[in-house]
Amino acid sequence: MDENIVWHNYATTKAQRSEQKKHKPAILWFTGFSGSGKSTVANALEAALNQQGTHTYLLDGDNVRHGLCKDLGFSDEDRIENIRRVGETAKLMTDAGLLVLTAFISPFRAERDMVRNLVDDGEFIEVFIDTPLDVCESRDPKGLYKKARAGEIKHFTGIDSSYEVPNNPEIILDTSKNTLDQSVTQLITYLKQKHII
Protein backbone atom coordinates (compact mmCIF):
# COMPACT_ATOMS: atom_id res chain seq x y z
CA MET A 1 0.00 0.00 0.00
CA ASP A 2 1.21 3.50 -0.82
CA GLU A 3 2.83 5.13 2.24
CA ASN A 4 0.99 8.36 1.40
CA ILE A 5 -2.37 6.70 2.02
CA VAL A 6 -3.30 7.15 5.69
CA TRP A 7 -6.32 5.69 7.50
CA HIS A 8 -8.54 8.39 9.03
CA ASN A 9 -10.40 7.72 12.25
CA TYR A 10 -13.75 9.43 12.62
CA ALA A 11 -15.59 10.82 15.62
CA THR A 12 -18.68 8.65 14.99
CA THR A 13 -18.08 4.94 15.55
CA LYS A 14 -19.76 1.77 14.32
CA ALA A 15 -21.07 1.18 17.84
CA GLN A 16 -22.72 4.62 17.86
CA ARG A 17 -24.28 4.04 14.43
CA SER A 18 -25.52 0.66 15.62
CA GLU A 19 -27.01 2.14 18.80
CA GLN A 20 -28.85 4.73 16.71
CA LYS A 21 -30.40 1.94 14.63
CA LYS A 22 -31.36 -0.18 17.68
CA HIS A 23 -29.84 -3.37 16.27
CA LYS A 24 -26.38 -4.80 15.65
CA PRO A 25 -24.66 -4.72 12.27
CA ALA A 26 -23.93 -8.00 10.51
CA ILE A 27 -23.55 -9.66 7.13
CA LEU A 28 -25.89 -12.50 6.23
CA TRP A 29 -23.98 -14.19 3.41
CA PHE A 30 -26.30 -16.39 1.32
CA THR A 31 -24.33 -18.94 -0.72
CA GLY A 32 -25.42 -21.84 -2.91
CA PHE A 33 -26.04 -22.92 -6.48
CA SER A 34 -27.81 -20.79 -9.04
CA GLY A 35 -31.54 -21.41 -8.59
CA SER A 36 -31.14 -22.55 -4.97
CA GLY A 37 -33.27 -19.68 -3.66
CA LYS A 38 -30.61 -17.29 -2.34
CA SER A 39 -32.11 -14.12 -3.79
CA THR A 40 -35.69 -15.19 -3.09
CA VAL A 41 -35.01 -15.93 0.59
CA ALA A 42 -32.81 -12.86 1.07
CA ASN A 43 -35.46 -10.63 -0.53
CA ALA A 44 -38.23 -12.04 1.66
CA LEU A 45 -36.06 -11.74 4.77
CA GLU A 46 -35.23 -8.12 4.00
CA ALA A 47 -38.93 -7.33 3.56
CA ALA A 48 -39.73 -8.94 6.93
CA LEU A 49 -36.85 -7.12 8.66
CA ASN A 50 -37.90 -3.83 7.10
CA GLN A 51 -41.40 -4.26 8.55
CA GLN A 52 -39.78 -4.65 11.98
CA GLY A 53 -37.79 -1.44 11.57
CA THR A 54 -34.41 -3.06 10.95
CA HIS A 55 -32.02 -1.06 8.76
CA THR A 56 -30.92 -3.36 5.94
CA TYR A 57 -29.42 -3.45 2.48
CA LEU A 58 -29.48 -6.36 0.03
CA LEU A 59 -26.53 -6.90 -2.32
CA ASP A 60 -27.51 -9.32 -5.07
CA GLY A 61 -25.12 -11.07 -7.46
CA ASP A 62 -26.84 -10.01 -10.69
CA ASN A 63 -27.47 -6.45 -9.50
CA VAL A 64 -23.85 -5.67 -8.57
CA ARG A 65 -22.75 -6.90 -11.99
CA HIS A 66 -24.72 -4.01 -13.49
CA GLY A 67 -22.44 -1.50 -11.77
CA LEU A 68 -19.78 -2.26 -9.16
CA CYS A 69 -18.63 -5.43 -10.92
CA LYS A 70 -19.77 -4.88 -14.51
CA ASP A 71 -16.20 -5.21 -15.78
CA LEU A 72 -15.88 -8.78 -14.48
CA GLY A 73 -16.60 -12.07 -16.21
CA PHE A 74 -17.05 -15.53 -14.70
CA SER A 75 -13.55 -16.97 -14.71
CA ASP A 76 -12.29 -18.16 -11.32
CA GLU A 77 -10.14 -15.01 -11.08
CA ASP A 78 -13.08 -12.72 -11.84
CA ARG A 79 -15.32 -14.55 -9.38
CA ILE A 80 -12.69 -14.04 -6.68
CA GLU A 81 -12.47 -10.31 -7.46
CA ASN A 82 -16.25 -10.05 -7.54
CA ILE A 83 -16.48 -11.43 -3.99
CA ARG A 84 -13.59 -9.27 -2.80
CA ARG A 85 -15.39 -6.12 -3.98
CA VAL A 86 -18.70 -7.20 -2.51
CA GLY A 87 -17.01 -8.13 0.77
CA GLU A 88 -15.37 -4.73 1.08
CA THR A 89 -18.69 -3.04 0.26
CA ALA A 90 -20.52 -5.14 2.86
CA LYS A 91 -17.83 -4.28 5.42
CA LEU A 92 -18.43 -0.56 4.83
CA MET A 93 -22.15 -1.10 5.22
CA THR A 94 -21.68 -2.90 8.55
CA ASP A 95 -19.53 0.02 9.66
CA ALA A 96 -22.56 2.19 8.85
CA GLY A 97 -24.53 0.00 11.27
CA LEU A 98 -26.58 -1.88 8.68
CA LEU A 99 -27.68 -5.48 8.55
CA VAL A 100 -26.37 -6.48 5.12
CA LEU A 101 -27.81 -9.37 3.14
CA THR A 102 -25.77 -10.73 0.24
CA ALA A 103 -26.93 -13.29 -2.33
CA PHE A 104 -23.97 -14.69 -4.27
CA ILE A 105 -23.09 -18.17 -5.48
CA SER A 106 -19.63 -17.41 -4.05
CA PRO A 107 -18.36 -20.92 -4.85
CA PHE A 108 -15.01 -20.79 -3.06
CA ARG A 109 -14.51 -21.18 0.70
CA ALA A 110 -11.39 -19.00 0.71
CA GLU A 111 -13.31 -15.97 -0.56
CA ARG A 112 -16.19 -16.48 1.87
CA ASP A 113 -13.65 -16.82 4.70
CA MET A 114 -11.91 -13.68 3.46
CA VAL A 115 -15.15 -11.73 3.90
CA ARG A 116 -15.68 -13.30 7.33
CA ASN A 117 -12.25 -12.02 8.36
CA LEU A 118 -13.09 -8.47 7.27
CA VAL A 119 -15.59 -7.96 10.09
CA ASP A 120 -15.73 -8.55 13.83
CA ASP A 121 -16.51 -11.95 15.36
CA GLY A 122 -20.20 -12.74 15.11
CA GLU A 123 -20.81 -10.24 12.32
CA PHE A 124 -20.53 -12.75 9.45
CA ILE A 125 -23.39 -15.22 9.23
CA GLU A 126 -22.91 -17.79 6.48
CA VAL A 127 -26.28 -19.01 5.20
CA PHE A 128 -25.81 -22.12 3.09
CA ILE A 129 -28.77 -22.65 0.78
CA ASP A 130 -28.28 -26.41 0.54
CA THR A 131 -30.79 -27.05 -2.22
CA PRO A 132 -29.73 -30.08 -4.31
CA LEU A 133 -28.23 -29.34 -7.72
CA ASP A 134 -30.86 -31.39 -9.55
CA VAL A 135 -33.62 -29.30 -7.95
CA CYS A 136 -31.82 -26.06 -8.86
CA GLU A 137 -31.39 -27.28 -12.42
CA SER A 138 -35.03 -28.30 -12.69
CA ARG A 139 -36.04 -24.79 -11.61
CA ASP A 140 -33.55 -23.07 -13.95
CA PRO A 141 -35.28 -19.68 -13.48
CA LYS A 142 -32.94 -17.86 -15.88
CA GLY A 143 -32.38 -20.71 -18.35
CA LEU A 144 -28.69 -20.77 -17.41
CA TYR A 145 -28.38 -24.50 -16.73
CA LYS A 146 -29.80 -25.27 -20.17
CA LYS A 147 -27.24 -22.94 -21.75
CA ALA A 148 -24.42 -24.39 -19.63
CA ARG A 149 -25.36 -27.96 -20.61
CA ALA A 150 -25.37 -26.87 -24.25
CA GLY A 151 -21.89 -25.39 -23.86
CA GLU A 152 -23.12 -21.83 -24.39
CA ILE A 153 -21.96 -20.73 -20.93
CA LYS A 154 -18.53 -21.67 -19.61
CA HIS A 155 -17.39 -21.80 -15.95
CA PHE A 156 -20.92 -22.43 -14.68
CA THR A 157 -21.00 -23.53 -11.04
CA GLY A 158 -22.16 -27.10 -10.63
CA ILE A 159 -21.68 -27.95 -14.31
CA ASP A 160 -18.08 -27.21 -15.32
CA SER A 161 -16.96 -25.16 -12.32
CA SER A 162 -16.79 -26.43 -8.76
CA TYR A 163 -18.72 -25.33 -5.67
CA GLU A 164 -17.04 -25.74 -2.29
CA VAL A 165 -19.63 -26.52 0.36
CA PRO A 166 -19.25 -24.46 3.56
CA ASN A 167 -17.51 -26.33 6.37
CA ASN A 168 -19.38 -24.75 9.29
CA PRO A 169 -22.15 -22.43 8.12
CA GLU A 170 -24.16 -20.70 10.82
CA ILE A 171 -27.42 -21.59 9.06
CA ILE A 172 -28.37 -24.30 6.54
CA LEU A 173 -31.58 -24.03 4.52
CA ASP A 174 -32.97 -26.35 1.85
CA THR A 175 -35.61 -24.56 -0.19
CA SER A 176 -36.74 -27.87 -1.71
CA LYS A 177 -37.98 -28.87 1.77
CA ASN A 178 -38.73 -25.57 3.54
CA THR A 179 -41.34 -23.06 2.49
CA LEU A 180 -40.23 -19.46 2.04
CA ASP A 181 -42.00 -18.48 5.27
CA GLN A 182 -40.26 -21.28 7.17
CA SER A 183 -36.86 -20.13 5.88
CA VAL A 184 -37.52 -16.52 6.86
CA THR A 185 -38.75 -17.57 10.31
CA GLN A 186 -35.63 -19.68 10.88
CA LEU A 187 -33.40 -16.74 9.94
CA ILE A 188 -35.26 -14.24 12.12
CA THR A 189 -35.17 -16.69 15.05
CA TYR A 190 -31.40 -16.99 14.66
CA LEU A 191 -30.94 -13.20 14.55
CA LYS A 192 -32.99 -12.81 17.72
CA GLN A 193 -31.13 -15.62 19.51
CA LYS A 194 -27.83 -13.90 18.71
CA HIS A 195 -29.25 -10.53 19.87
CA ILE A 196 -28.60 -8.94 16.48
CA ILE A 197 -32.20 -7.75 16.22
From TrEMBL:
<keyword id="KW-0597">Phosphoprotein</keyword>
<comment type="pathway">
    <text>Sulfur metabolism; hydrogen sulfide biosynthesis; sulfite from sulfate: step 2/3.</text>
</comment>
<dbReference type="Pfam" id="PF01583">
    <property type="entry name" value="APS_kinase"/>
</dbReference>
<comment type="function">
    <text>Catalyzes the synthesis of activated sulfate.</text>
</comment>
<keyword id="KW-0808">Transferase</keyword>
<protein>
    <recommendedName>
        <fullName>Adenylyl-sulfate kinase</fullName>
        <ecNumber>2.7.1.25</ecNumber>
    </recommendedName>
</protein>
<keyword id="KW-0418">Kinase</keyword>
<feature type="domain" description="APS kinase">
    <location>
        <begin position="25"/>
        <end position="174"/>
    </location>
</feature>
<dbReference type="GO" id="GO:0004020">
    <property type="term" value="F:adenylylsulfate kinase activity"/>
</dbReference>
<feature type="binding site">
    <location>
        <begin position="32"/>
        <end position="39"/>
    </location>
    <ligand>
        <name>ATP</name>
    </ligand>
</feature>
<dbReference type="InterPro" id="IPR002891">
    <property type="entry name" value="APS"/>
</dbReference>
<keyword id="KW-0067">ATP-binding</keyword>
<dbReference type="InterPro" id="IPR059117">
    <property type="entry name" value="APS_kinase_dom"/>
</dbReference>
<keyword id="KW-0547">Nucleotide-binding</keyword>
<feature type="active site" description="Phosphoserine intermediate">
    <location>
        <position position="106"/>
    </location>
</feature>
<comment type="similarity">
    <text>Belongs to the APS kinase family.</text>
</comment>
<dbReference type="InterPro" id="IPR027417">
    <property type="entry name" value="P-loop_NTPase"/>
</dbReference>
